[in-house]
Structures are given as C-alpha cells and as structure tokens.
Amino acid sequence: GQQQRLCIARAIAPDPEVLLMDEPTSALDPVAASKIEDLIDDLAEEYTVIIVTHNMQQAARISDRTAVLLTGGRLVEYDETTKIFENPEEQRVEDYISGKFG
Prior knowledge:
Layout: H1 2-12, E1 18-22, H2 30-43, E2 48-52, H3 56-62, E3 65-70, E4 74-80, H4 81-86, H5 91-97
Parallel strand pairs: 1-2
Antiparallel strand pairs: 3-4
C-alpha cells in the first residue's frame, strides 16, 4: 500500500479537480486495500474521484455512482451505486454484478 499512497500523494500535489485511479488496490492484501479505500473516501471530500475496478464489492463499498462498461468498453448503465447493485435496469448488468457473466 505504500507505493499506492505515494502515487496518490503525487497525483494530488498539483491540486487537481479530478483524480482518476486505475485499480488502486490491485495486488494488495485486504488490510492494505481497506486503508487505500479509506484514503479514497477521505479524498472524495475535496476531489472528484473516479476509480476503475473489476472488484464489484469494492465498487459497491466506496462509490456514490457507478458506470458499467462491458464488451468493447461500451457504457451499458450509469446510475447511483445503490440502484445499480440493487435494481439494475439491464439484465447484462445484473448478470455481471452477480457473477453470472464476466
């Protein structure tokens, strides 16, 4: 997690409006990943934070809004995270977040 925190520190040094994080907790153990998720939550107070993750549980835990992109990077659904995870409009999204596809 040290390397991720260093990268995040470098990213916020110029005081951007938006932080884009690509798989910020990949290859981390659950304790280190939790610390990074807590840091992301803190940063969301000051910045718009966009994360890319394949970890559906992580997306459900730390995001306010979720975009689901499937085959070919096409946007399939975008809405509040609770709506996406509890009542998605697209069957493909339901299949993906439930583990039936992907």
